[in-house]
């Protein structure tokens, strides 16, 4: 089972973390989130029930193109394309270009785990 660990941090916290890593002052631990969101609301938008159902559909049916996925999901291709680009930006899906310009969506994880801090503001 491949797991994607996601976390929530403010923009300032993510920036401080990134700069600390770049300076060599901080080395991320193996079990830390690889993908970061700025709020619970942004997590909820990207991983809505409808979008999680889409991830499941992609993982189980393995469509060879966005056109095939649109048919399977009943979603309009332009809206589907926007949703997948957003998810790809967070690393939740991969959009692999294949023969004749087809784009095949792939879900590289079988599980997503959310690290939700109770206390924020970790200094890096």
Describe the structure.
By secondary structure, the chain is of the alpha/beta class. The chain has a single domain (3-115), classed as Arc Repressor Mutant, subunit A. The chain has five helices and five strands, in the order E-H-E-H-H-H-H-E-E-E. The chain has helices at 11-23, 40-46, 49-61, 66-73, 77-89, and strands at 3-8, 35-37, 94-97, 103-106, 111-115. The strands form two sheets. A three-stranded parallel β-sheet has the order 2-1-5. A two-stranded antiparallel sheet has the order 3-4. The chain is elongated, with a radius of gyration of 16 Å. The relative contact order is 0.24.
Report the total helices: 5
Shape: elongated
In whole angstroms, how far apart are the ends?
Answer: 31 Å
User: Can you tell me the CATH class?
Assistant: Mainly Alpha
Q: Numbering strands along the chain, what is their spatial order in the largest sheet?
A: 2-1-5
The fourth-level CATH homologous superfamily is Winged helix-like DNA-binding domain superfamily/Winged helix DNA-binding domain
Number of strands: 5
> What's the rounded overall pLDDT mean?
92
Unreliable parts? none
Please describe the biggest sheet, giving its number of strands, its sense, and whether it closes into a barrel.
Answer: 3 strands, parallel
Order of helices and strands: EHEHHHHEEE
Q: How many domain regions?
A: 1
- CATH architecture type: Orthogonal Bundle
> How much of the residues is beta strand, in percent?
15-25%
CATH topology: Arc Repressor Mutant, subunit A
Into which percent range does the helicity of residues fall?
Answer: 40-55%
Radius of gyration, whole Å: 16 Å
The assigned structural class equals alpha/beta
